[in-house]
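fwd from M.: "can u put these together and see what the complex looks like"

so here's what she sent:
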Amino acid sequence: MATSKQRQAEVKRRLTGLADMVIAAAAKKKDPMMKIPVRSLSNVKFNGKKRIIEMGKKKQERSFFNLGQAKKFMQTILVADALAELQNANLTTSLREIYYRTKHTIEGSHENTFDGQNESDPLIEDLEVSLAALREEFHVRADNGGTMVGPIVLEDDGDRIDCTKLGKGGYSIPSIVEPGYIDIKKCTADFVLLIEKGTQWNRLSEDKFWKKFNCILLTGNGQPPRGVRRLARRLHEERKLPVYVLVDNDPWGYYIYSVIKQGSINLAFESQRMAIPKAKFVGLSSFDPGKYDLPRNVGIKLNDKDINRAKELLNYPWFQKPHWQKEIKGMLSSGLKYELDALANKDFQFLTKVYLPQKLKERDWID
Amino acid sequence: MATSKQRQAEVKRRLTGLADMVIAAAAKKKDPMMKIPVRSLSNVKFNGKKRIIEMGKKKQERSFFNLGQAKKFMQTILVADALAELQNANLTTSLREIYYRTKHTIEGSHENTFDGQNESDPLIEDLEVSLAALREEFHVRADNGGTMVGPIVLEDDGDRIDCTKLGKGGYSIPSIVEPGYIDIKKCTADFVLLIEKGTQWNRLSEDKFWKKFNCILLTGNGQPPRGVRRLARRLHEERKLPVYVLVDNDPWGYYIYSVIKQGSINLAFESQRMAIPKAKFVGLSSFDPGKYDLPRNVGIKLNDKDINRAKELLNYPWFQKPHWQKEIKGMLSSGLKYELDALANKDFQFLTKVYLPQKLKERDWID
């Protein structure tokens, strides 16, 4: 495996390679042209063997001398140039700032290079797939988007961060957690618990669940952002930790789990480096309210949107296993969904003291 | 000033005092009754001298033997009871879990104590104003909601957290930052920079702006959550630090600043412990695009909603100072708003290297 420095040099080489291609074509008086993998739904499939959603092999050409492609070609090169500037200065920035940085009036005209961020964002995705690098490797970040506590020591910008010594608050997970940005110096945890919502994460952190069960508590406050998914994947891959996912019992919870596990349809090209095909669904299952004696009045009636979404999920290839069909149909036939918060009906600490310990002890999860 | 332990004991005493009141009334065969300050707009005013938005003195009575109030009275006592349970067990929880905890079917009936969280949330606010305590003091939290770096050392749950040693990622600010939860052990910063958006916070953190300018960098990723506001207020009050606010140049940016400074209309009762009347607006001002030579094409055309909101702001009593009228009218007459992100048009590090240093050097802010 390449070191983080080698990888960074490689990404930089690929970006500047684009400029070289344009220069070489110009020198030969040829049409500069790029081949870009097609990011549309038609080029996405579920790989049943690897159990991830991935892109097919279709590519499209984008050239400078094609009138319909000239502007887009120029925009792509402008974005690549801004990304190369970030590499050279060793800076990170946001999608929005890339847009602003590359926006100017084209000399001798009244036309702007870009009229909106909706023009520059897709080009960054084009470059990701063409150059086979994550946007994080291009130094493009989002906001900090998650929190972590547990027996792990990180190095971030020369600082050694011991996540057992950050109180209840924990470590704020940056958007970019690639090796070289964030290094995992030490990790003695037995598993990762990835929790959908901050409120349950707070419960578990306050109760020092990570100490008793020797695990890492991660949350992304809803659909986990890329940094949280990537960190979970690194812990799984580099430290061989099992990843257990705890979400609400509703179609959105199932979907969050499925994105963590096999990636998403929209961003299929990142599954290879983001998905965790062995992630386990630890709850909240449609059969938990019965098992843990939750009253029906803390369930929430499924609405039409829930029902339609659940039916869609039933058809996804990655939910074809019999236990998943049973799980989703169980929810539909009860007519109810349950939030994890509803466990508080039993006791404020029911999650920490009863529910999760029993789940882990009985290995009561779905794959 | 009371110690944090004394204050906690006092809050507990006030909560259990409610139960005592009910018992005492029952013993005397009298109608148990509470007086609750009115939280409606009619009871909110701007105190021009203290320069905060605060509640008036109007109160309403809520009693058990009044048929129209009996259910609400019972619900209020149930919520207070759940809050007392949290005090006794020294636990924190969320608004949503309070709802689930207090929800049950009333014995001998088919009626639920609560049918939705919209019934329990206002009662927590009623208890806040009646018992003059913040919900955080009742141990009610939201998600972690902000990030901080800089020369400050905190104690959180027995851990000593040095915010100069947390890399670029920083400290994830918990929802509850009251003394006793989070103690400020040491702080050598000269000021607090409270930044609206995470993207500029990341820029400044990456560039170690806090080191060069000896300040604390705080963000709440948008409208700052209560924990961030309360922490800024504590740093201002306990450590006498000036607070500078950096927001987008649009009506929503002005409003974010105004909530930090004098509190909000909806939650007027918390201004006394959340507002920072001396907070300064450091940018982005309507006159900055001219001063810093930003091209007009990175401005965004004001839409009708922006224009109406700006006109509303012009009428607020706390925006009556001439420089504020000039600032807001300046935006209206230019017809443009600017995001902080637009500074990247000059250079990715323009914010860190030119804009903020010049602002601070020239003391170019609005009060």
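replying to her w this: Chain A has a mean pLDDT of 94.
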